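Worked Example 4.2. Consider the chain below.
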Amino acid sequence: MAKWLTVLAAISMLTAAAADISGTWKGTAETQNGTIQRTFVFHQQGTALTGETTSERTGKSEIKDGKVEGDKVTFTVTMNFQGNEFKVNYTGTVGGDEIKFRAEAADGAFGVDYVAKREK
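Applying the procedure from the previous section yields the following structure tokens:
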């Protein structure tokens, strides 16, 4: 019994230590084709993360498989660009009201770094 209480306490501490990123964030990335702007709307419950992301180039995409563990954020989206669907994996680190993301195509075709700032 004591073992289970210790495990539950550890899980509670990890959940409490996770950054709360719920809300709207505006991100930018510099690419060879210019600046990309993307809006992230996050809904967080404990370590689970859902929501959506939108950009002028690829439209709206639903956030899937999202997690927030401590200051680490991960999720995937499926985007559509010029009629082609592709999966993009995001990994990020939260620092206050800023998240630094690496977005990479699941097939390794491209990657880009975003800096997202919380909307107030």
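The chain has one domain: 2-118. The beta strands are 23-31, 34-45, 48-55, 59-62, 64-69, 72-81, 84-95, 98-105, 111-118. Compare this with Example 4.1 before moving on.
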